[in-house]
What does this fold into?
Amino acid sequence: MAACGRGLSRAMGASPFSAWRQAHSYTRGRLKPEYDAVVIGAGHNGLVAAAYLQRLGVNTAVFERRHVIGGAAVTEEIIPGFKFSRASYLLSLLRPQIYTELELKKHGLRLHLRNPHSFTPMLEESAGSKVPRSLLLGTDMAENQKQIAQFSRKDAEREIEGRRALFQAFPKYEAFMSRLALAIDPLLDAAPADVEAFWRGSLLQRLKSLSTLKPLLQAGRIVGARLPQYYQVLTAPIAKVLDQWFESEPLKATLATDGVIGAMTSPRIPGSGYVLLHHVMGGLEGMQGAWGYVHGGMGALSDAIASSAAAHGASIFTEKTVAKVQVSHGGRVQGVVLQDGSEVRSRVVLSNASPQTTFLKLTPQEWLPEEFVQRISQLDIQSPVTKINVAVNRLPDFLAAPNTPGGQPLPHHQCTIHLNCEDTLLLHRAYEDAMDGLPSHRPNPLPSRVACRPIIELCIPSSLDPTLAPPGCHVISLFTQYTPYTLSGGKAWDELERNAYADRVFDCIEAYAPGFKGSVVGRDVLTPPDLERIFGLPGGNVFHCAMALDQLYFARPVPLHSSYRSPLQGLYLCGSGAHPGGGVMGAAGRNAAHVVFRDLRSM
It folds into this structure.
């Protein structure tokens, strides 16, 4: 294992952006002066939209400003020999129709399903040979209950007063959430209901709008009489919801992380329940709620979608930056202008960029209503995320689950490993720090509060996919929060602050897995401004804009413009800033493509 790190720099102060990376042009097709449709950005949603349009006979070109396709779903070799899913790192939410309709397996997509899937080690004082406790969750419900019983037998199974029957809290909670996810499912695969057309449109428009109400009616039938309980999940603080189900803090904190991951919110803030639901409503290969790694990293998923699109004739160009959306004198989109001055004509333009980039930077402002522009500029884009990609020469050795003598991956190594998640109060205090402009970790805490630590989700995809790292080595993804976009006093992130924060994160990991810091070969630290600059994520927000209740469904990105269409005729949104939102889901791209195709047919 020592040979793994030989010849690789261990200089922790070196800028990750000066590191060696694989740069190549991903060009499929020859650039022509005119297409039926142009897609701005080769993120996964843009590629999905292009693949569907091309299959429907719409000649489509995709223009990507970076040297590599995928947007945030990308694989990059930042450190020689180590392949990182540099931004997004897990798969679950991708719509099952996209797998089958785009024949992604045929185009090379391979998955590694995880079971168990969640591991939360405790920071506890060891007594003699006793190791600290941990919480390991997977698909085996009986084993889950054993794990939960370490912290609370009541949470594993509760005896109903006066009866012998057992009320099994955790299985019942899982079934409760699964039913809510099932109710939301129909809403993901169609444009939001067009309420305005239903009430104010012509007779024909009203009749057409009836079909958009069908998913809402389906959802209502599934929820049924339990609507009040489910309404509370979507609107209440997730900590309140979990308190009604459980008493064990490690279990509640582990579940609560899904309610705050990627979001500048706290488990104690109303609305965090929907973010949790957003992260539990996926599945892989027919297994509801399953999460997995893509073989070859997340970029392999984007490659499979691109391959499907190109196989039907779509043209995909990298290092082709769109500078402006071109508008005719009559106020209709007529194509785009590239940064090099080239003009590409098209009947429609779909933007996989964020709403802010699309409407505030790329679209001539005189063609957009002033109120619309104002609403777009006011979108909540706060992000708490700093992503750290780490190359190591051995697996982390957790006190709560020691490694084997040979160092082979154990079941917990394939999990999402939750650190600093012993208590929901830790999550809340980390959030409070970020709101004060402080990265979550205060060596010298304010008198009014106890010290807090960053929340860390640690994943080791090479535990299931050894092709990502040299033999004996591993790649580690650290999804950490909370870090503000701008530090206190208006200070910007610099190399010193970036490395200081990463060092504190590594100190936290070291407490759970002694020797971790000594195993590090190199790292790539991406603060919110870095995520914005490299991937075009506004404010570093992985969802393009917050998944808050006032920015969902009818109101995503803004009210009256949730159908992928914009106020400018011929310009559409197809990225995470459109319904149903962020995550590697592909639904926005698929839905937008069908809306565009219907509009093209009616022209």
